[in-house]
Amino acid sequence: MKKLLLLLGLCLYVFNGFAQSNAANQSKDFDQFWKKWHTAIMKKDYNAVSQFIEFPLVIKRGEGANAIQTVAKNDFATFFKSFLDEPMHDDQSRFTVLRGMKDLNEEDKMLVDGDSATINDMEFEKVDGTWKLVYIYQESQKAFAGTKAKN
């Protein structure tokens, strides 16, 4: 019985170590993506930023029939500039908030789960092995120029 319990304890220890290692690798992978994403945003290089987007980009604002919008690649730069200019926390622009997020904190890293991550109001997923922004939860209507309702 002791051997069985010892074996069971060893198995649990190994599985726990593997799970923690896997989570750390997922976080590290996303962290590398985030640094590239962040650099492109700070340079306001919307062409580079668009390489990290799965188009059409889906935007959700509120509830109702017109709550889901999409942004095509050719409309992205206009939309994203307006999106970054919107107030986020304490009336700071989203750009200002993101500027302070060069490195993700531990709370942000906890929101990386397998092939998806949620940072602030943005959803990222791995698409064909590459991290992409796929979804934005938007609070204001301002950045909706050039978007269209998704049926």
Can you describe this structure?
The protein is α+β, with helices and mostly antiparallel strands and 151 residues long. It has a single domain, classed as Roll (Nuclear Transport Factor 2, Chain: A), CATH 3.10.450. It has 5 helices and 7 strands. It has a 7-stranded mixed sheet, with helices on one face. Strand 4 (116-119) and strand 5 (122-127) form a beta hairpin. The chain is globular. Residues 4-24 and 143-147 have low confidence and may be disordered. Keywords: Signal. Residues 1-19 form the signal peptide.
List keywords for this structure.
44% helix; globular; Nuclear Transport Factor 2, Chain: A; 5 helices; seven-stranded mixed β-sheet; alpha+beta; 151 residues
